[in-house]
Amino acid sequence: MHRRQLLQLFGGLAVGGLARLRAQPRTRRRIVVAGGGIIGASIAYHLARRGASVRVLEKTAPAAGATQNSFAWINAGFSKRPREYYRLNHLSMLAYRQLALDLGDDLPVQWGGSLAWSDRAEATARLERQVRARQAWGYPVHLVDDAEFRRLEPGVVRATASPAVHATEEGNVDPVAATLALLAAAEAAGAEVEYPCEITGLDLSAGGLTGVTTTQGPFEADALVIAAGVATPRLAALAGLDVPLKESPGLLAHTDPADRSVGRVVLAPGAHVKQKHNGRFVVGAGLGETAVADNPDEAPPTDTSAERGRRMLEAAARVIPAIAGATLDRVTLGFRPLPRDNYPVVGFAERQPDVYLAVMHSGMTLAPLVGRLAAQEILDDVRVDLLEPYRVERFG
Ligand SMILES: Cc1cc2nc3c(=O)[nH]c(=O)nc-3n(C[C@H](O)[C@H](O)[C@H](O)COP(=O)(O)OP(=O)(O)OC[C@H]3O[C@@H](n4cnc5c(N)ncnc54)[C@H](O)[C@@H]3O)c2cc1C
User: Fold this and answer.
1) Count H helices, E strands: the chain?
2) Looking at the structure, do residues 256 and 238 belong to the same domain, yes or no?
């Protein structure tokens, strides 16, 4: 897609009736973003390039939370339901293309799509039905036969000749490098990024927000964006807000760099695999989507031992033989910032109009669009229709 088409698409979103204007736009002068993960970084970037005064306060280091432990598959796949949530994810996939134009090589994103299949007839039939349903929504996904599969990914071995699902516009990204690139671009546009700096209190004594207290002293603020991942409920509680999350651990095994053998995200029965720009394989277990659909009773793993990592690599090597020759580097355990009903929480809280919440799973996919729309809501004092289903007030 060309730059002009993208600008038309997103320009169309902004003026085409998706944003509802309030009568009296409110000016926010000093915006503090709590959290330097992919979501805080994207919001800060979009705020700063609009000329806002932004300060990112990060408790540990950029990307230190869920982001660094993410598989970082960019997708609007079958788990993205209902249609409005699918659409949010799909628009964000397109927003990544724009971000890649803006940040250039600093954004380590790999396109080429994903390939998924099952070796069980019943699951294959379900995948085929899901493909038909997504095609009817206009998603670029289709079935490929075994010969085409082998042409696309000659380094992948399948125990079946059943058709596979090729979602052609999906991608994957290096989550830490992407976060650093967004923060660097935010800083270049005037934002300040401080770490380690933990927000410990909010000054709401004057009726609205006037500042935050931190381990590095106080900072003035008239708006606070809480993008603190799984720590969001704790920060939100300081403002009297309840943001219910549920626990969702996920393991990844990472290898040392190896020769390139796959270009796409490979969603095999029992193992999700990608190979990063630098040659490292990343293997996921219990990530949801195909793996869970094929093993619905499998408990989420939390064991980060080298033994567990080796077993994950063995499962992956049955599909990508090159992994058998790769060395396990480490096993990471991450916790998805997953709201109780699985959908994002985004937007100003009605009870605390200076506090903007941004917590979600699939944040690696959603960051480009959510960052841009959040900046629009904060700076233009509008409510973007696309985000209406995701307000915190739905929890009552
Ligand atoms: C195993 C796993 C696999 C995943 N796979 C995918 C995938 O394939 N595709 C996808 O789209 N998404 C995926 N996700 C989800 C995605 O990674 C997350 O949605 C995303 O990283 C969330 O980013 P965040 O910035 O909201 O949170 P985080 O990255 O957790 O960042 C929050 C930051 O806030 C900081 N913080 C906390 N408290 C404070 C405080 N009081 N003051 C200041 N700073 C504070 C933390 O230190 C942290 O750096 C996966 C997640 C996991 C764990």
Assistant:
1) 10, 24
2) no
